[in-house]
Automatic annotation (TrEMBL):
All copies of domain Histidine kinase, residue ranges: 266-493
GO molecular function annotation: phosphorelay sensor kinase activity
Catalytic activities: ATP + protein L-histidine = ADP + protein N-phospho-L-histidine
Species annotation: Myxacorys almedinensis A
Keywords, in A-Z order: Kinase, Phosphoprotein, Transferase, Two-component regulatory system
EC numbers: 2.7.13.3
Full protein name: histidine kinase
Length: 498
């Protein structure tokens, strides 16, 4: 589809650091030929499930203060109104964007009022705003809510990789940007209503919410998620294996599904939700210009730690989904991936993490890195997990080396450690003692390190995770230096034999 004159709301949210995406890991590049059909269908079902849960959470949130001072405000949505309860419709001015040609011709009912007293707020209820035929915003369900207590936007659209995703944000700056996007559409097609909408926006201008509002919304959304339905059997039977992938490992036993999946669902909900709330408010605070440098530094640490834990639990849960899938290759969609761009963003983060453990990370790259076939977001998180696994087994002062090279039609990435012995006498005599931390197995997927409290994937799950990403992981044990990880990634076909 050609680029539209204005960006969609999901495009704006996809490039925002303060949008919360509850749909898990992002998908693939928009090349349909490289997508797994069942994976896209599953993501669409999941995003829709979260969208309907968010609508229920929103209506619950808007009703919470009825006993004291009932909330009032403005709700803009597409393609249909999201509020249906009469008590809410009486207190909110609701506007719907539509591409219905009849709405363009007739200018469906608008009531322009001279005053904006609180008692008049609802009299613009269910007004319709027309958009140009073909404007993608009419087919992208969204809801923008403005009140004096908080502002919220929810979008059922696509992520940065054009995969189906549900996103929401309480950030006033993001909402102001989205409002300007919608205002341009109103100016183009509904100029007679611009003055009233501008007045309503000024009356209920975006504000940063109390942390309890964000927490309540997130928890209520999770409670209202509809039951998940599997993708249609037809899609599952018609999915295609990527030519670089081999046969999937055998399906895990039913006991793994019932124990590990339920356990990790509970962990993900109870840990990721408050972490997401903390990260949202941390990023809002970081936008302030009156913070002293030491406060900014601490907030950046909080933001980084929250992101790392959110990604870790997201990776663990996705690994369990892969382990318990009847056909594991259908759970991840693959696409041409720029490894050079991914590494440019990841290497500084990896080096910072290594420095915090008093380790040195060295990365050796060829002059040119051709694209590979994988899932960029999942690949980044899986590589980060490998580096963390290696770092946990090294004493202070040791070195981690990552070397990337071409190997025929594949790209080879090798990760190995160089131990710095903590006892000079042992080092002088050539005696190296590999530090192996105590690890306890949790089910058939997870490992637990009691001395640090870290959860990680076991080796079998890690290999299967990379297998689902189109790669092959080989692990070799060295008696004195620990594990050597060698990863082979398929090159994008156009670059395979250059």
């Amino acid at each position: 589809m050609p680029q539209w004159i204005f960006p969609t709301l999901s495009e704006i949210l996809a490039h925002s650091d303060n949008a919360d995406r509850t749909s898990g890991v992002s998908g693939a590049d928009p090349l349909e030929t490289s997508r797994d059909a069942n994976s896209i269908a599953q993501k669409q079902l999941r995003a829709e499930r979260e969208w309907f849960g968010a609508i229920a959470a929103l209506q619950s949130l808007l009703k919470t203060s009825e006993s004291s001072a009932p909330l009032q405000g403005v709700v803009l949505s597409a393609p249909l109104p999201v509020l249906s309860q009469p008590d809410l419709l009486a207190r909110f001015s609701t506007w719907s964007f539509t591409a219905n040609p009849l709405a363009i011709l007739t200018g469906l009912p608008f009531q322009l009022l001279p005053a904006l007293d609180d008692s008049d707020i609802s009299e613009g209820t269910n007004a319709t705003l027309s958009v140009l035929p073909g404007d993608p915003i009419a087919a992208e369900p969204f809801c923008l809510v403005l009140t004096r207590q908080f502002s919220l936007v929810m979008v059922l659209g696509e992520d940065a990789n054009k995969a189906p995703a549900f996103s929401f944000s309480f950030d006033p700056d993001v909402i102001a940007q989205l409002w300007q996007n919608l205002r341009l559409r109103v100016m183009l097609m509904n100029p007679a209503h611009l003055k009233k909408l501008d007045a309503l926006y000024e009356k209920f201008s975006p504000v940063a919410p109390d942390y309890r509002v964000v927490s309540q919304f997130s928890h209520t959304l999770l409670r209202h998620l509809p039951e998940f339905e599997e993708a249609p059997t037809l899609l599952r039977s018609q999915s295609h294996r990527h030519p670089h992938q081999s046969a999937a490992p055998a399906q895990m036993p039913e006991s793994l599904k019932s124990l590990d999946v339920e356990l990790l669902q509970a962990i993900a909900h109870e840990i990721r939700t408050p972490l997401t709330t903390i990260r949202t408010f941390t990023r809002l605070l970081l936008k302030r210009r009156d913070l002293p440098p030491d406060a900014v530094k601490r907030l950046e640490i909080i933001d980084r730690e929250c992101s790392e834990q959110i990604d870790r639990f997201g990776l663990i849960f996705r690994a369990v989904e892969i382990e318990t899938s009847a056909t594991k290759l259908e759970t991840t969609s693959l696409a041409p991936t720029s490894l050079s761009e991914m590494l440019a963003q990841s290497i500084p983060r990896w080096q910072k993490q290594a420095c915090q453990r008093n380790l040195t990370l060295e990365v050796i790259l060829p002059q040119q890195l051709p694209p590979v076939v994988s899932d960029p977001t999942m690949l980044d998180q899986a590589l980060t997990s490998l580096i963390e696994r290696s770092a946990r087994s090294l004493p202070s002062g040791s070195r981690i080396q990552v070397e990337v090279s071409l190997a025929g039609h594949q790209l080879k990435l090798q990760l190995q450690s160089q131990v710095q012995d903590e006892k000079p006498s042992d080092h002088a005599s050539g005696s190296y003692k590999h530090h192996a931390p105590l690890l306890k197995s949790l089910g058939q997927v997870l490992m637990f390190q009691p001395e640090t409290g870290n959860l990680s994937l076991n080796l079998s799950a890690t290999k299967n995770l990379f297998h689902a990403l189109g790669a092959k992981l080989i692990v070799r044990e060295r008696p004195e230096q620990g594990e050597v990880f060698t990863l082979f990634l398929p090159l994008e076909p156009a670059h395979s034999f250059r």
